[in-house]
């Protein structure tokens, strides 16, 4: 017991910093890249911690590492401590620029990027790094400080989720395509949709749900073109490729500019919504709170109902 106490009299800060990076990234290699050391150095430092403390911190698999219960508990404490030190230095000692990494899908990015200049005016010392990210399901898939994702509440294991906004779906089309078909927006009826190509995103489910809501069951929505990228699907509608289900408020700028028109006042609200995701035990980074607060201010009030 005396030996254990002696080993803890001087905390191994370098090794703890290495452990924090490896635990956060769940990768010895990625931790080594971040710290500019070799993966062998990372592995040796963590093995020494485990040996000195007689406590296993990671389960080592072929191509990955997983935290043990003890490792997960230590990770939360160490991340919090280093985060508080970093915040103290940034707040009272240095005024250098900070950076914040935000992951999001393409359609959300298309909508929010034009608004970013107002954040930059308010917080010029925070640099934003935007990452295009696919939908995630757990903390191991998250590589950013903040993730904006689409799903049901509490769908993300190991992440704190905060409701941001809902969306609605409604058919949109290019006015040029309406003119080509000699269809007037003022007197268009659901029957007219039979004469248009249908643009799908991912699969047929959203159009099927809208048809069920509208009652227009004559429309065969299991045909047309399917596009996996939501921005490409939107561009196809702009280019007169057919009628798409517009995701509001993301297509509001195009509708307001007259590039696209909304055909009917029949809005489908899916059960899923957009949420802000932050890793559990994340450092109490005030920049995250600033960005989240600003982001919520950008959401139209009509899309704030949870």
Descriptive account of the structure:
The protein has 306 residues and is of the alpha/beta class. It has helices at residues 2-9, 13-25, 28-35, 39-53, 69-93, 106-112, 116-122, 175-180, 205-214, 230-238, 252-257, 286-297; strands at residues 58-60, 65-67, 98-104, 126-132, 146-151, 159-165, 168-173, 198-201, 225-227, 243-248, 261-262, 273-279. It has 3 domains: 2-91, Winged helix-like DNA-binding domain superfamily/Winged helix DNA-binding domain (Arc Repressor Mutant, subunit A, Orthogonal Bundle), CATH 1.10.10.10; 97-165 and 272-303, D-Maltodextrin-Binding Protein, domain 2 (3-Layer(aba) Sandwich); 168-262, D-Maltodextrin-Binding Protein, domain 2, CATH 3.40.190.10. The strands form 3 sheets. It has a 5-stranded mixed sheet with strand order 4-3-5-12-6. A 5-stranded mixed sheet has the order 9-8-10-7-11, with helices on both faces. Strands 1-2 form a two-stranded antiparallel sheet. Helix 9 (205-214) links the parallel strand 8 (198-201) and strand 9. The model is unreliable at 1-6 (pLDDT under 50).
Task: Summarize the entry for a quick read.
The protein has 306 residues and is α/β, with parallel strands linked by helices. The protein has helices at residues 2-9, 13-25, 28-35, 39-53, 69-93, 106-112, 116-122, 175-180, 205-214, 230-238, 252-257, 286-297; strands at 58-60, 65-67, 98-104, 126-132, 146-151, 159-165, 168-173, 198-201, 225-227, 243-248, 261-262, 273-279.
